[in-house]
Amino acid sequence: MSHNDLQAVYIHEALYRILLSYNDLTIACFNHENLRYLDISYNLHMPSEVCFEPTQIDTVIREGVAEGERLVGPISVRYYKPIK
């Protein structure tokens, strides 16, 4: 689903590879159970906090995303930000 004007993507099926580069994504939620490769590069408005867990995906391509900040998901956000 690359090279579209998508702003949000919700994928419930467990996929092995997802290509979402060159969109306008601000939200990308999916089942990362079997996911091994994710390309979300050049989604300039995507925040660094995401609803998937990037640490559980083998390869994440994220050039031009979150202004170069590390992506943090529901699990990893606890390790990078203090809980208030």
Q: How is this structure best described in words?
A:
It is built from one helix and five strands; from the N terminus they run E-E-E-E-E-H. With 84 residues, it is mainly beta. The longest helix has 4 residues. The model has no long low-confidence stretch (mean pLDDT 88).
Write the layout of secondary structure elements.
Elements: E1 8-11, E2 17-19, E3 27-30, E4 37-39, E5 59-61, H1 77-80
- Category by helix and strand content: mainly beta
What distance lies between the first and last C-alpha atoms, to the nearest angstrom? 37 Å
What characterizes the major β-sheet?
3 strands, parallel
Instruction: Please tell me what the overall shape is.
Output: globular
- Rounded mean pLDDT score: 88
Q: How many distinct helices?
A: 1
Please provide a brief summary of the model:
The protein has one helix spanning 77-80, and strands at 8-11, 17-19, 27-30, 37-39, 59-61.
